[in-house]
Amino acid sequence: MSFQQWMHIRHNIDIPWKTFVRESSNVQDKSPERCVRQLAFQGNEAKAAYEEIVQQTSSSNTLPARLKNLRSRIQDNSDTNSTSTTQSKKSSLCDDILAKVTVNTLLKAVEQKDLKFLQKHMTTENVNASDDFGWTPLMSASYCGHLEIVQFLINLGANKRTRDKSGLTAAQLALKRNYLNIVALLKKKSLPIEPSVEYNKDNVMEDEIQLEQNAAFYCEICKATFQETTPQRHENSTLHIFNTKPKLKYIMYGISRQNKGYRMLLNTGWDEEAGLGPSGKGIKYPIKTCLKMDRKGLGQIIEKNEYKITHFKSGDTTAINSSKMPKQKPLKKRDRERLLHREARKERALQKVENKAGEILTDREEIVALDKRRNDDRVGMRALQKQSHEKTWITVGPLLLKMPSKAAEELLEKDQRECDTAINKLRSDLKIKVNELRDLEMTPPVPGLMLEPMSHKEMNAIGQILGRSV
């Protein structure tokens, strides 16, 4: 691009260019030319219009016909004269503003509560703009708690139902930070205002005066006296309608109307408002029951407990889960430590009992195994005594050996004696362990467990005492 083309573009486009010059006091300001805006009608017409406005009375609500015609002519002239220039300038300015002011800039201004910046740059076109996370200026203002900015954005046409990428709306974000006034403002429904209907303070004052002049009246249905309302409003109130006890269109029995049994009753001619049975006097609802927790006899009046309909089966333990239990007072530090020490002692005592019981069971299993081994030795000895061979086969663990019959018989006798000794020792120890177990269980010892057989001398002495000859 040549220098001449650049200068041509610079003078033709209406953009505030910056000029950089050397430091000097004689340099003239070379700022770009600005368009001078003037009225599009003659001075006589303007004079006539202003005179009609001054002469107009305050009671008139409509403009004179001449002024309206003059305005229409002014608008026509202005539209025909400057349509091309204004449209190009407005479009260029809007594009410049939208290009310079980004979404992040708007969100930052909302976060800093810069209302002047928002009033200058926020429009209906970018009021619902969102960033990469789906946040709009209304969401940012609600999360930061700026009530004035929220009101400004709502008046500008911000969408209250927009959700971010997490699925949250502006009201939910405000509720997350506990800004209840903003939540109420966002959930408030904006009613459409008709242009013909205006707010009239005189009507409001008349209603207040009418309410003050209303005399107090007594409602027989509500059985109360009301003064700050009218009878018509009171009859339409929720309190009055509730006290009239209106009947429902369909009686609710707790089951679906599509139930097969219910449909069968209706098809056979049963009236829903009547009771069961051919006479229509049977019960319509289940019997109310009450959980009896005291020791009074049947038929006594229970004042505290409430009767209600339950659906528990007989023997169901969940029927008393909701019964109120007495609250236990919290334990002190010293009592809590004592309770913990007591539980620790119980655990140690139970551990000792379990260990001792395990030892007893192990000894019993070992006695059974030794007794079986001793019986096997006895069977082998009898088989060796019956046969007449000099050598025989014998198993020693997993080995199969051939040895003389006499040596095998001696080996079996030796093993049998060792088994008898081990069994007697285990039985004697088992008696002691059983007594120790019963001591740990805090039970008396087994009577006659520690008895031993009498010797030959002791039997002879008893015989002599009894007068028996040996």
Give the SSE layout.
Elements: H1 3-12, H2 43-55, H3 65-100, H4 103-111, H5 115-121, H6 137-144, H7 147-156, H8 170-176, H9 180-187, H10 201-213, E1 217-219, E2 224-226, H11 231-235, H12 238-243, H13 260-267, H14 333-386, E3 391-396, E4 399-404, H15 405-440, H16 456-465
Antiparallel strand pairs: 1-2, 3-4
Helix pairs in contact: 4-6, 6-7, 6-8, 7-9, 8-9, 14-15
Question: How would you briefly describe this protein structure?
Answer:
The chain has 470 residues and is mostly helical. It is 51% helix and 4% strand.
Offer a few descriptive terms:
51% helix; 470 residues; 16 helices; coiled coil; Helix Hairpins; Serine Threonine Protein Phosphatase 5, Tetratricopeptide repeat; two-stranded antiparallel sheet; GPANK1; mainly alpha
Summarize the structure in words.
With 470 residues, this protein is mainly alpha-helical. Among the domains are: 101-187, Serine Threonine Protein Phosphatase 5, Tetratricopeptide repeat (Alpha Horseshoe); 206-279, no CATH class; 345-459, Helix Hairpins, CATH 1.10.287.370. Helix content is 51%, strand content 4%. It has 16 helices and four strands. The protein has helices spanning 3-12, 43-55, 65-100, 103-111, 115-121, 137-144, 147-156, 170-176, 180-187, 201-213, 231-235, 238-243, 260-267, 333-386, 405-440, 456-465; strands at 217-219, 224-226, 391-396, 399-404. A two-stranded antiparallel sheet has the order 1-2. Strands 3-4 form a two-stranded antiparallel ribbon. The chain is elongated, with a radius of gyration of 54 Å. The relative contact order is 0.03. ANK repeats lie at residues 133-165. One of its GO terms (molecular function) is nucleic acid binding. Residues 405-443 form a coiled coil. Residues 257-303 form the G-patch domain.
